[in-house]
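2024-03-11 09:14:02 INFO worker-7 job=invfold-0412 stage=load source=structure_tokens
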């Protein structure tokens, strides 16, 4: 067995003395652990006795003993009758040679991480306060006081049992409140037992993919369309087929059904993201009929449907016909606030028996007080009043943004996005590089998203900017649009845009 090393020398520098006993113990523990991992304390080498090391370091023997015990508990050392030895670690320790070790390389076979890496990073999300960022509601207008009262009531009246996991499918009270709200506001046909609480729309989409598809099966996605749906299908090893979107929404042809029959069809019929198109009633009924004929399931993401700024609300596709093969998805991220992380999935009655057990394995329940507070918020009428206020606010903001774009965007453009939701889409001629404009805009604390980044198979017409107005004040629109206009002109002529 190797002789005890000179630990005082191996510890590189004296322990700091202006610390309490616990801090001295942590220092010694970290130094010894690092020496073992670095290979300076070789496997099998015997450490000095606690008394000898304490005298060498001029510290308390109890400090050394506690550090040794901590290392032993973690498996770095092994006490025996002859003292304390360094354990033979399962992974090779670093050597003291200067030989350059090869870097870890990713495996040659495809992995989930590699598939997801092919999606363009959402760089705008690194700037939470940036203007024109799509998908962010008017956070400063949220009724925080009313929400705090709902949370207080939930915590005050709930039993200690609510600190546990709870029903994996969600709190029964919230599921009932959502079912009631959807029946009135969206024309959704469902019972509370059909509602599943998820952590936002993204988890709900992922649940649909995991429950209803096998690797290699075909999934249709809108093109251009929501990138989160692409992420979920990629993670599920699905074969994605992009279906073009026009002024009437998803445009699936008879040839598409014949050549690429899908297992899942993802669509945003009430307010297509990002074009803003509304799926026409003829296409809705045809999609349902063809899905039934081919044994496919439709994932209806009811994106931004609560914020329609003109005319009557457009009802959900799920409620058009009885027993439609539609899984309906919604979220409170836009109607409440994103960090709440509450969404929901409405399952068709025909699926309940077969998916309940898998769902209970996938989900564990949680956010129980927030769920109870959300139920209270809906039942008390606060949610409905909040939606009414936000509809008026977003209607005014969209009108103001349209006016600012018409007046100050001095490049050829067309405004899409419909009269709904929290964003407008500005289409630009292909000579204006939308990704370059978006990257330059971010340097100026503006966060529009390039339209082309939403398409799997971009066309020249898929060039433009998606502008969120939900969390941007009206008085900022004119100067911000002027800035975008300068950046667009710079991108066209090849300038850097930094002086715009």
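2024-03-11 09:14:09 INFO worker-7 stage=emit residues=500
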């Amino acid at each position: 067995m190797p002789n005890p090393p000179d630990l005082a020398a191996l510890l590189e520098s004296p322990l700091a003395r202006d610390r309490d006993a616990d801090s001295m113990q942590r220092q010694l523990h970290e130094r010894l652990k690092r020496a073992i991992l670095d290979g300076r304390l070789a496997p099998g080498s015997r450490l000095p006795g606690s008394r000898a090391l304490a005298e060498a370091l001029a510290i308390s023997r109890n400090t050394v003993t506690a550090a040794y015990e901590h290392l032993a508990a973690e498996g770095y050392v092994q006490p025996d009758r002859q003292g304390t030895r360094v354990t033979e670690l399962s992974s090779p320790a670093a050597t003291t040679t200067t030989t350059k070790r090869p870097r870890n390389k990713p495996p040659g076979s495809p992995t989930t991480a590699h598939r997801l890496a092919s999606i363009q990073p959402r760089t705008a999300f690194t700037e939470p306060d940036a203007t024109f960022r799509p998908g962010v509601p008017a956070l400063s207008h949220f009724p925080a006081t009313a929400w705090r009262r709902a949370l207080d009531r939930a915590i005050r009246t709930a039993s200690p049992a609510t600190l546990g996991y709870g029903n994996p499918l969600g709190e029964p009270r919230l599921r009932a409140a959502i079912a009631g709200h959807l029946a009135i506001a969206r024309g959704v046909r469902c019972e509370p037992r059909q509602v599943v609480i998820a952590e936002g729309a993204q988890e709900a989409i992922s649940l649909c993919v995991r429950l209803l598809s096998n690797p290699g099966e075909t999934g249709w996605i809108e093109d251009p369309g929501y990138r989160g749906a692409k992420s979920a299908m990629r993670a599920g090893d699905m074969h994605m087929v992009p279906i073009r979107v026009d002024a009437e929404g998803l445009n699936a042809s008879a040839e598409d059904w014949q050549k690429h029959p899908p297992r899942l069809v993802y669509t945003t019929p009430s307010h297509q993201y990002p074009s803003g198109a509304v799926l026409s009633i003829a296409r809705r009924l045809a999609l349902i009929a063809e899905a039934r004929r081919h044994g496919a399931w439709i994932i209806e993401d009811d994106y931004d449907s609560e914020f329609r700024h003109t005319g009557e609300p457009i009802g959900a596709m799920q409620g058009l016909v009885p027993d439609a093969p539609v899984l309906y998805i919604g979220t409170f991220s836009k109607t409440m606030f994103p960090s709440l992380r509450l969404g929901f999935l409405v399952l068709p009655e025909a699926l309940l028996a077969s998916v309940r057990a898998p769902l209970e394995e996938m989900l564990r329940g949680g956010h129980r007080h927030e769920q109870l507070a959300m139920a209270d918020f809906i039942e008390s009428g606060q949610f409905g009043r909040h939606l009414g206020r936000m509809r008026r606010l977003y209607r005014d903001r969209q009108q103001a943004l349209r006016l600012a774009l018409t007046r100050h965007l001095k490049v050829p453009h067309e405004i899409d996005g419909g009269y709904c939701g929290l964003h407008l889409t500005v289409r630009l001629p292909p000579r204006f590089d939308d990704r370059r404009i978006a990257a330059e805009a971010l340097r100026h604390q503006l966060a529009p998203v390039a339209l082309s980044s939403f398409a799997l198979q971009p066309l020249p017409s898929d060039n433009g900017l998606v502008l969120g107005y939900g969390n941007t004040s009206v008085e900022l629109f004119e100067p911000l649009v002027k800035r975008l206009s300068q950046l667009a002109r710079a991108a066209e002529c090849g300038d850097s845009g930094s002086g715009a």
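2024-03-11 09:14:09 INFO worker-7 stage=report msg="The longest helix spans residues 382-408."
2024-03-11 09:14:10 INFO worker-7 job finished
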